[in-house]
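# step 3/5: fold
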Amino acid sequence: MPKTGRQSGRTVDTNEKVAFLSAPAAYPEPTGSVDVLETHMSWVFLTDSHAYKLKKPVRYGFLDYTTVKARKLNCDRELELNRRLAPDVYRAVVPLLRDGEGRLHLGRGGGRAGTVVDWLVKMRRLRAEDTLEHAILAHAVCRQDIERVMRQLGAFYRACAPETLRPEDYCASFRAQIVADRDALLRPAYRLDRKAVEAVATAQLAFLDRHGELLAERARSRRIVEGHGDLRPEHVYLGDPPVIVDCLEFHRAFRIVDPASELAYLAMECDRLGAPEIDGWLFAAYRAETADAPPRPLIDFYEGRHAGLRAKIAIQHLDDGAVREPEKWRARTGRYLDLAGEYGRRLAAGG
């Protein structure tokens, strides 16, 4: 159940907020209906023309949304960061108010006054059928689509200031992540194939032993930037120009990436959806846009790392006792592990 918080001396019921925002009358613009989506960290309310995101009052190891102040800070950050790649999509941060009679209002229009009980990010609503994910599943994506996306991303990466990381620290971070993901996946409760999990970790650790210098060189040559952090096909909207949404705003360390790694994540997810050819298109366009040519073994390593991490994230959905469709998450975990194993075999074959 949603949690409650306290603001300005009075209890604010999150259930009430969600119920209010689920009704068409809550919005300043006319809308025939409101579609409500729920994630681990947010509710998203879709009107005919806009999307409004309300952050849940939750706390994890990497974020704390339990206060109105913290949610406002992260709404502001989400707006600022996402305008880098979707400037016309992210419109405003709007307050949710409670007036003196206890009624809720969205925004300050019409001279409304009241106590701010929460904040929402307001976005232009995009069509789900315009995503790269939808195009892949419909067998409708072409090389020109990927080249347009890469022109957008290439300009973005060129504009990013390089981050300074010690090469040895960059390499060590991967070793720690590989071990942590392996140990998490091997929890007995998950009942995953131990040999498959260990084979993935063994191949990735062997790559670090043999070819860690490839990673070190990325840090040494200052290729690491503050990127998007969650570059998946469902976040890429095709068009001219394309827009890329849902930057990972809540933890900066998760956005400090090698662009080659971020693109490997996107390529891996395209592979999972049944479009392995996008990998070649994507990196050819990246090289043309940036004159950066990451070696193939490095890309395979990055793809395997992302597949292993996504396997862990997928299976951890089972830790939520109320999880819907547990078999869906088991199947997805298996697919990610299959991909991670395939990338690991490529690394082994490469010596």
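# step 4/5: annotate
The chain has two domains: 5-125, 132-349.
# step 5/5: archive (pending)
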